[in-house]
Amino acid sequence: MTFSDLGLSEKVLAAVVAAGYEKPTPIQAQAIPHVLARKDVLGVAQTGTGKTASFTLPMLSLLESGRARARMPRTLILEPTRELAAQVEQSFSVYGQNHRLTVALLIGGVSFADQLKKLDRGADVLIATPGRLLDHFDRGKLLLTGVETFVVDEADRMLDMGFIPDIERICKLLPFTRQTVFFSATMPKEIQSLADQFLHNPVKVEVAPPSSTAKTITQKLVASGPKPWDKRAVLRTMIEQAQELKNAIIFCNRKRDVATVSRSLSKHGFNAGALHGDMDQTSRMATLDSFKNSKLNLLVASDVAARGLDIPSVSHVFNFDLPTHAEDYVHRIGRTGRAGREGVAISIATKADRKYIDAIEKLTGDTIAWIGEMDFSSTSQEDDENPAANKRSRRARGGRAKTDTAKSEDRQSNSKKKNESSASGQTDTQEVNRKPEPPAPAPRQERSKSSSRRSRQRDDRQVIGMGDHVPAFLLQPIRPQKPKPSKSKSAD
Ligand code: ADP
Ligand code: MG
Questions:
Q1: Is ligand 1 within 6 A of the CB of residue 80?
Q2: CB–CB of 123/73 below 8 Å?
Q3: Can you give the CATH number for the domain in which 56 is found?
Q4: pLDDT in tens, 412-446
């Protein structure tokens, strides 16, 4: 099977050759002819199997006839996250390099004005996250009655993110005669019933059984003590011992932990960055770009931030936390072993995680082997994310307390050093830097007053409520109010 057997136009075929694809992936081979025939399609294939091209390539062929009208996009693709939407836009510019099509991207965190300009010109392809699309619609800037093809990509993620009501609303704004295409890595019942409602006689294209994991991924579990610093120490060991680690995504369940783990890795001289939902669009894109072009080699991320990201060659995935939903496990480890490459997925498990492991093994049908012994006891000392340990290590180096900027510069230079050292094969000083320092006994009372003040300043960065600041109105004396004569009394 080759791309030229699928009925795609010459322009599209030329772009596919230029992109370096030799043959279609199974989902592409099966879905493309149906999308080209303007049929409704329900496509299920695991993450990393090339679902994006399964709809973008035939859409490009179909768009070659006809023209866009102002504010009336001809096709609409919904994506659950901004990153995914931006990636699909990127796909259109790669595969559509021989076309002159207008592609508009409507995502949050970007100015409305630029988006409106594109809509006004007439968009052939509109790629949007549901919320921003409805914002534009409600402002009267957009008509959806000209949509010929409607794609809901990463449908199961849409469900996770609570977008189903938005999708239902959007479906009702579209013309009745249209083509509807759903793509998903898994097919939970909610997505199936959405499909039953909005797809007409769909062709179901299912490549792997839902929720299966790629055969090219080696999955492992590693036991850890229950504390965050236990897990951070295990993570460092796993990274250090990993073979042929080119780059890795480290998943955490909570945004807060994404930041902490990333900071801790950087402090230990690893080249790490964070990606989570609270970051603004620009910094998310910047982090992702650094990861893609290998300036960063460890990306600590939350599920939402990482779902479906097109990072072609991740060699390792680490689960800092086991996901509480087994399907997230499939998505996470699907970041490695993509398009037939070998990959490694290592999950850190505490004693309390047994139930999650059982659910994952039941869902995937795989039994995951353990690395080493299943020792869940707390073995390591609190690490550098513990302020007391921080101070000790700084004192050991003879350093003074540093400002945040200085610290962040340190981190950058550390990361840079790590890059350089790994490039030149020298690891001596950095190895020392990366090893957790032995816990020097540093009883609290020994500390000087000034150092404990510094430490408090640093520790209290996460201020609760208004912190020490008491607004003036709260300092005013409270005058007791005179009781009002009650009405019922006067009536008596
Ligand atoms: P999915 O949406 O199924 O998770 P993507 O569409 O993001 O997967 O594709 C995953 C990766 O595979 C991308 O890096 C993409 O460029 C690559 N890819 C897609 N189709 C092919 C193909 N036919 N041959 C080689 N690589 C491909
Ligand atoms: Mg995808």
A1: no
A2: yes
A3: 3.40.50.300
A4: 434 433 443 333 333 323 333 343 333 333 333 33
Pairwise CA distance, residues 177 & 148, whole Å: 8
For the entire predicted model, the pTM comes to 0.59
269 and 235 in one domain?
yes
| 235 and 370 housed in the same domain | yes
pLDDT tens string 165-181 = 999 999 999 999 999 99
Please tell me if the CB atom of residue 21 comes closer than 6 angstroms to any atom of ligand 1.
yes
Residues 6+ apart with CB under 8 A from 417: 269, 429, 430
DSSP state, 368?
A: P
338 CB under 6 A from ligand 1? yes
The boundaries of the domain holding residue 166 are: 3-206
What's the CA gap between 21 and 1, in Å, rounded?
A: 13
Query: Same domain for 13 and 39?
Result: yes
Ramachandran class of 95: left when φ > 0, alpha when ψ lies in -120 to 50, beta otherwise: alpha
Convert the pLDDT of each residue in 81-93 to its tens digit: 998 999 999 999 9
In a domain, 444, yes or no: no
Residues paired with residue 190 on neighbouring β-strands, in sequence order: none
Render the burial of 45-84: b for 16+ CB within 10 Å, e for the rest.
bbbbbbbbbbbbbbbbbbbeeeebeebbbbbbbbbbbbbb
Instruction: Name the region of 285 (left: φ>0; alpha: ψ -120 to 50; beta: rest).
Output: alpha
Is the CB of residue 371 less than 8 Å from the CB of residue 222? Answer: yes
Do 182 and 280 fall within a single domain? Answer: no
Which of 206, 235, 262 delimits the end of a domain? 206
Q: Report how many helices (DSSP H) and strands (DSSP E) the chain contains, helices first.
A: 21, 14
Ligand 1 pocket test: pick from 25, 44, 59, 87 the residue with the most ligand atoms within 8 Å of its Cβ. Answer: 25
The residue nearest atom 25 of ligand 1, judged by CA position, is 21
Q: Which residues pair with 250 in a beta bridge?
A: 300, 318
Q: List 44's β-bridge partners, or say none.
A: 184, 206
